[in-house]
Amino acid sequence: xTRVSVICDLLYTMAVREKCRFKTGKFGWKKRxxxxxxxxxxxxxxxQYMEKPELTDADCDVIVTTVPPxxxxxxxxxxxxxxxxxxxxxxxxxxxxxxxxSNDVRKLLVLSTDIVSKSLLLLTGKxxxxxxxxxxxxxxxxxxxxxxxxxxxxxxxxxxSPAQGWEFARSYLEPKFRLVLDPPAEExxxxxx
Length: 193
Fold this sequence. Notes:
- By secondary structure, the chain is an all-alpha fold.
- It is 61% helix and 0% strand.
- It has helices spanning 3-21, 29-50, 57-70, 84-93, 103-124, 131-148, 162-173.
- The N and C termini lie close together (12 Å).
């Protein structure tokens, strides 16, 4: 397991929770929007760390001190109950600081950053309160968690191949987001995981 997969596990959990919590209705939108902006800001931080070539213990310190205050609603979730910093740090310390990621996985990580960034722009823009914006965000949130699934820890039952992750997400993200994965390796050729 790598530290990138530890971050992806957290990002995946946050994305699933936000997807399930998100409602397109107008009632209570301002409060939900403020909470979503904070959560997406935390996700953006995580996405930026996933792109680093090597992750240090100082990076862990930033994550455990920044993410929980931005996402107080998530502290009610089972994955975040108890001593989240200690639990996250233990997984972090047991993981490899560098990750040898395939080209397809790198493309998916860049796409996840793009989705989160564009979602934040929509939420803070002039049209943030329009029905179309809420519908667009609903679609993007439903695609985001599938984008990071190929980066989950190897023993995670929700981990999928990059092609499967994109296939699950494509209907929610296209035409705004497009992705071309590398052609599958031929039989007998070594695959990079």
